[in-house]
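Here comes my example:
=====
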Amino acid sequence: MSLKLTDVSLSGIARDRLHEINLALTKPGLVGVIGANGAGKSSLLKVIAGLEKVAHGEVVVGGKRLSDLNSKQRAALLSYLPQNEQAQWDITVTELLAIGLLQHSLGKQQRAQRLQKWLNYCDLTGLAERRLSTLSGGERQRAFLARALISEPQLLLCDEPTAALDIQHQLQTLKLLKEQSRAGRLVVCSLHDLSLAARYCDRLILIEEGKLLATGAPASVLTDTNLARAFSVSAEWFCHSSGVAWIPQPLSEGD
């Protein structure tokens, strides 16, 4: 799976704009989109998902121009998980996952096998007949993530998948996304926690005021210069066996 954005711009109010984004992702992996609030992270994901019409430029997914694809063709290539998604009806977990298959032509047996596969994978088997209103935040997030995965997309887009989760469920969610990237999917998600982004992501995309400030391996993106420009902070980084952690500091008046 490949993803390419060429001179992509999105008009709108200031916090929704994107300016001439050029980006090429050519192999599977977990890619984190980072930046300050209002930088354009959500807008970028919506553009890639085909939910926002660009004012200029082109988005190509798997060698196909996104603008040439209808909704069913897009659904065959990608899934999008919005931030803090809520169901319109108080349905069961199984019914929620079934919604993810509506645009896919599967026989009855294939559908049942697909449902069971992702219930098992996301540790939802014991919750299959529970209604969404009875689930904890972490359980509900797993259910929505399973619904996004059940179509088995080549490209998975997640907007703040760890938002409002406790640390245990943040780690659980990112571990699951990492596993999906290792299974051959391209996973692109926006994240706020830079320590988790550095630990789990293969590549980072740093957005500042609608512009691409930096992209590459976490160590090459999370530099003092980039942190100062995008977040107005400096940082002390600490390395350990399971990853890295950082302590942010406000910039001194002289910086």
